[in-house]
Amino acid sequence: MRFGSVHTVAGRQARAAWMFLAPGLLLLTLFTAWPLVRTAYLSFTEYSLLTPPEWVGLENYRALLGDDQVTNAFQNTVLYAAVVTPVTIALALALAMALNARFFGRGIVRTAVFVPFVVSLAVVSIAFRFLLDPNYGLVTHWLSAVGLAPTQGALAQPGTAMAAVMAVGVWKNVGFYMVMFLAGLQSIPSDLYEAAQLDGASRLQKFRAVTLPLLSNQTMLVSILAAIASFQVFDQIKVMTNGGPAMSTETLVVLVNRVGISNLEFGYGSAVSVVLLLLILAFSLVQYLYFGRRQVRY
Amino acid sequence: MRPTRRTCIAAGAALALTAGLAACSDGGSTDDGGPVTLTMWHGLTGPDGPAFQEVVDNFNDSQDEVTIEAEALPWDSLYQQFLTAATSDDGPDLVAMSASRLPQYAERGVLGSTDEFYADDTYMDTSVLAEGAVQASVYDGVNYGVPLNLGPVLMYWNKALFEEAGLDPEAPPTTWAEFEEMIPDLTVDENSDGTPEQYPLAMGDHSTVPVFPSFLWNGGGGVVSDDGTTAMLGDPASVAAAEHWVGLVQEEQITPVGMSGADSDQLFQAELAAITINGPWMTAGLTEAGLDFDVTVPMAGPEGQSILGDVVSMTIAQRLDEDQKDAAYKFFAYWESVESQATWANGSGFPAIRTDMPEDAVTNEWAAVFGAPEILENVRPYLTGVTGSGEINEDIFTPALQSALNGTGEVADLFPAAGEDIQAVIDDA
After folding, report:
1. Rounded to whole angstroms, how far apart are CA atoms A157 and A245?
2. Of A281, A277, A278, A257, which is closest to residue A269 (Cα–Cα)?
3. Sorting pLDDT into bands at 50, 70 and 90, what band is A66?
4. Does CATH number 3.40.50.2000 belong to domain B33-151+310-380?
């Protein structure tokens, strides 16, 4: 009887828990798990959306191995992630440390750094297109004023176009990661810095021995989120360059959009999506293992 | 057993749901041959939209048998939404789309044939329609559309800038050679920093009307043969024509590099370029902006003076039944009537599609210019009837052209390689 009542209470609690979880699980299943499974299935088919999927086995994966456009998009994606991820993290950490100090107008500066994150990326991208316009752009005007008039627009040349979309990516997201680092910095007990001070540690030593180790959780989270965001970059490239000029800024997600939506090759687009998923999973796992070993707890 | 309150509510809800679903179902035809309502999507969101809607309203008011419910969406949204709507059989009954897009959907059985409209002269005598516009919607021997508009792409020139350059404002270049002679006069680099403040030409290299392919035509080449079976980008004539224009862009800076069609339009409208090549849709904005401009046939190349014709066709969904098709054909015939074409041409600046318009019917100056018989007879559609037209133009030709223009590759290498890729797309279709 006593075990039975305990069992009943546990059962009720479990039922209540499932009821609370159900809406979230339902949404997760509908909008994340099911599309994931469906994409994996479609990657083994030829599918135009207008006719039923036709099973082709590994044909799409074989085709993408020898596809120059996939290689190009893969290289662009890796280049974007390799530059934007570390730059964003370093800048976010530097800004967080600078804005953790007390000074007049600190709140306004923090807000100014964070605001780009909440502005629509499409709006930001259109604004930057105008700023970089070779004929009317403010950036062009400034460069001309110092004798550096560009002969072509920044978005017209492969090298500068990629640099421009990278700069927008960093500027847009740095505020968000700064807030995460700021929260971490404020949770570090001040007596650790005082102890280090008594031991005669320099500012650099305090940063390396106290700040960085105690920010390891935030650094791991920020690194994984920033890397995933970089691998999935789409909006600003779609609006600013649409992958051009000459596909020099086309990343894997932009390629998936072009192949799937424009060319109606949903099977092939799904195969590229699966490869991107595996790439992100592998990269995140490496990051997790790397930072997991270096986590510091006091 | 008496029904409970809960049962009554459920029954009421079911009744309301049934009624709602019935109301939401396709308007379509009724079994007893009653009025037919057809939904239609189009992308005429600019100044041409009201002119189109005026004709639709006139048609709906003119009779009680057919009602057209037209909805305007931006072209990009239309193509994306039509794709998903067509898969669920829940799309529009009629849809307007660029003729070059049409084979993509026709091949997959989404569109219905309109051959019957052309064969049955009780609807209209279709021989009066511009042949190029009618043929643009033919795919694999079957016509899948009826022309909604025909936009010849002509050469605009800014007369004020010609005058400032010391050139005759009434004498635009008629050949490539004449244009080259004018380049020094039409280029303005006031501060001598190597970047002109004013360019001779405004030409986009992506997201634009295909101006560059028309240069290839007039040089004796092209992107794909007119029958859609052979890639021509690697032909010596195509390579020579491309090298000629790429050379002018790189060495003479006749136009900024990397512009979209919209950027190019802005450059010309801001009077920072003396010449541009575009369709009739641009006249309204330029007139409103107060530009002193005129329009003429694009300059001839050594091998011809083809005029690019941008055609939008009205197509029907495959699922339409006989009554719905009949209703659609009645609307098409009304659209192509002299009265409707006059309303359309005068309201939009597009030329009438009929070749037998009475002289005094079209009063819009630009519609008359773009609709001149010598222009309508020489329009040449681009990539119509080719299944992979989007992939060929956007994914292969445009990147090759951009690489050539921005100097990251040579035409002699890029174009033949792109030609091979295009041939592969054609062969795969």
Report:
1. 7
2. A257
3. confident
4. no
Tabulate helix, strand, coil % of chain B (nearest 5).
Answer: 45, 20, 35
From chain A, the residues in CB contact with B389 under 8 A are none
B-chain CB neighbours of A48 within 8 Å are: 108
pLDDT of residue B303: 94
Q: Which of B29, B151, B141 is nearest to B96 (CA)?
A: B151
Predicted ipTM > 0.85: no
Lowest mean pLDDT among A136-145, A182-191, B331-340: A136-145
Give the gap in angstroms from C-alpha B146 to the nearest C-alpha of chain A: 22
Q: Residue A149: what pLDDT?
A: 65
Average of per-residue pLDDT across B277-306: 92
Rounded to an integer, what distance in angstroms lies between the CA atom of residue B429 and that of residue B228? 11
Beta bridge partners of B278: B154
Judged by CB atoms closer than 8 Å, whether chains meet at A244 and B398 is answered as: yes
Cα-only R_g, chain A: 24
C-alpha B365/C-alpha B351 separation (Å) is 10
Cβ pair B308, B214 in contact under 8 A: yes
B33 pLDDT band (50/70/90 cuts)? low
Outline which parts of chain B fall under CATH 3.40.190.10.
33-151+310-380, 154-309+384-428
Q: How far is CA A80 from CA A87, A159, A231, B393, in A?
A: 11, 12, 8, 27
3-state secondary structure of B196: coil
Considering only CB atoms, which chain A residues are within 8 Å of B87? 49-50
CB proximity A53 to B under 8 Å: no
**In terms of CATH, what superfamily is A63-293?**
MetI-like (1.10.3720.10)
CB contact under 8 A, B256 and A147: no
Q: Is the distance from CB of B126 to CB of B118 less than 8 angstroms? A: yes
The encoded tokens of residue B47 equal 């100044």
For residue A133, the one-letter residue type is D
Task: Label residue A7 by pLDDT band (50, 70, 90).
Answer: low
Radius of gyration of chain B (CA): 24
- Region of residue A171 (phi > 0: left; psi between -120 and 50: alpha; otherwise: beta): alpha
> Which of B108, B103, B110 minimizes the C-alpha distance to B142?
B103
| Residue B296 vs residues B268, B277, B356: alpha-carbon distances, Å | 16, 10, 22
> What pLDDT is stored for residue B222 in this prediction?
95
User: What CATH class does B154-309+384-428 carry?
Assistant: alpha beta
Instruction: List chain A domain ranges.
Output: 1-33, 63-293
Q: In whole angstroms, what is the distance from residue B255 CA to residue B26 CA?
A: 50
Whether residue A246 and residue B84 make contact (CB cut-off 8 A), yes or no, is no
Chain B residues whose C-beta sits inside 8 Å of any chain A C-beta: 80, 83-84, 86-87, 104-105, 108-110, 193-195, 205-207, 253, 256-259, 263, 266-267, 270, 272, 388, 390-391, 394-395, 398-400, 402-403, 406, 408-409
Average pLDDT value over all residues in chain B: 88
Does residue B59 surpass a pLDDT of 50? yes
How many beta-carbon contacts under 8 Å exist across A and B? 92
CB-based contact A246 B408, cutoff 8 Å: yes
Taking the C-alpha atoms of residue A59 and residue A79, their distance in angstroms, rounded to an integer, is 28
Among B86, B197, B12, B104, smallest CA distance to B385 is for B104
Q: pLDDT digits over B72-117, tens only?
A: 988 878 887 887 787 777 789 999 999 988 988 888 888 999 999 9
Asked if the model's pLDDT at residue B2 lies above 70, the reply is no
B406: closest CA of chain A, how far (Å): 6
